[in-house]
Hints:
- 77% of the residues lie in helices and 0% in strands.
- It is an all-alpha fold.
Amino acid sequence: xxxxxxxxxxxxLASVLVLLLAAMSWWLHLxxxxxxxxxxxxSTVQLLLVGLVLKVLFEQTHPGLVALMALFMLAVAGFEAxxxxxxxxxxxxxxxxxxxxxxxxxxxxLALALTVIIRxxxxxxxxxxxxxxxxxxxxxxxGVAIALDGLTRGAxxxxxxxxxxxxxxxxxxxxxESIRREALRSGLIPIVNAMATAGLxxxxxxMTGQILAxxxxxxxxxxxxxxxxxxxxxxxxxxxxxxWLGSRRLFDERERLRLDSDHVRRNYLDEVAAFRETYQRExxxxxxxxxxxxxxxxxxxxxxxxxxxxxxxC
Length: 314
């Protein structure tokens, strides 16, 4: 049995399920219906564009176009890894640490797979390179983002004990050892769980796709095993590298813990803005006038501005 082609009507019929999900969110007052619809529309546009780009790449097999596509995928992966972190490194380090770790792990494992294991001729054959790179980048991105987020959160929450260990004579590696270990464990848990349940709870994506395309089940299983092993190695290597670089960046050349004052200020301003917004909303609901004032303003001037604004509303 060959591949069954899907028509636009088939896709539209499947999209009704997403509309039902958004309607359920609206009915239950979950507040995520807008995000669901935007995500569905975004994925539709992205996948259709990727399909058109891959069609061109498969027809031409030009190494320059393949390299351009790979670099674009890497840039997006690095940006997404940065956005998934609550506490980020300041300046270019925030983007650079994650992107470099993803690049080294994903591209290194990909080169090994294409030249030694699969032995594709030419090695930049986009039919193999792009799908494999996409899976490696996606999983390495998630692992690196989780690991870096765990590292920075843990270091921020334990900054007192870390500085106490440094004062007691510990090196920066000793002071943050337990936090690094926990961050690495967090980054590796998703891929470990995926390997443990593969074939029992779910059929992984590549195996499912090959079976639907008509490949023999055993060949599909072997390719999926290859992908799982590559992904686990890429995710592990990327997480280790990201955590090492990130933890080193947390300390200066004299092994003092860096405190991101800009991040502290940004968090403070966000908290103040959220408090003011809540206060303003509650005043409005209670029929109370809300007029923000500068504390450096003289009292008589502040009172005059309030009375003028009140008279303008009457």
